[in-house]
Amino acid sequence: TVCHGPSGRAATDGYYPRIAGKPAGYLYNQLLNFREGRRRYAPMTALIDTLSDDYLREIAGYFASLDLPYAMQQPPSAPPEMLRRGEALVMHGDAARQLPACVQCHGPQLTGVAPWIPGLLGLPADYLNGQLGAWKVGIRRAQAPDCMAQVVQRMPEQDIAAVARWLAAQPIPANYKPAAALTQPLPLPCGVVGGALR
To answer: Which residues of the chain are in CATH 1.10.760.10 domains?
Structure first.
């Protein structure tokens, strides 16, 4: 694609995310979010505004089916204490703030869970920081109940930055695939998990 790079592998600037190999339900939900105004980016909305649900499912299924290697990326620089804080939040959460660990929803390897939950590895720190920040201020939303908005509302900006930097610094697994199923119940009710693919 023009924006998301050849075969959805991501643009070199880090602004547009990789969509190749993401879970079909996740991609379909994002297309719905753009069309229905929960996510705002005028070029994307204009592109899909008149498309049927069936065609959106077809688009999501196509990109989900792509099994392409990830490009090598330069990890971002960050102070060691920031990376330690990011790792602690990703792997263990913060019980004092009722903040679940990222691995509780995005899978133990952070590669996502089919068909609804995306992987978090292989995304640039600036993209991750921007998306988490958009949830925090209400620019990005998801189907209710919006579990990501609830999570990010509990995070100060420095923790959002720490999580984004740590995730972006992680190596990408050779066989990057979403887990087949959740291994435990989700810590919060989440509207994006469920029958969106119908």
So the answer is: 1-66, 78-185
Nearest to 10 by CA among 62, 96, 61, 73: 73
Helices and strands (H, E) in the chain, number of each type: 8, 2
pLDDT in tens, 146-196: 999 999 999 999 999 999 999 999 999 888 899 999 888 999 999 988 754
Burial 107-137 (b: 16+ CB within 10 A, else e): bebbbbbbbbbbbbbbbbbebbbbbbbbbbe
So what CATH class is 78-185?
mainly alpha
List CB contacts of 13: < 8 A, sequence separation 6 or more: none
pTM, full prediction:
0.83
Residue 117: helix, strand or coil by DSSP? strand
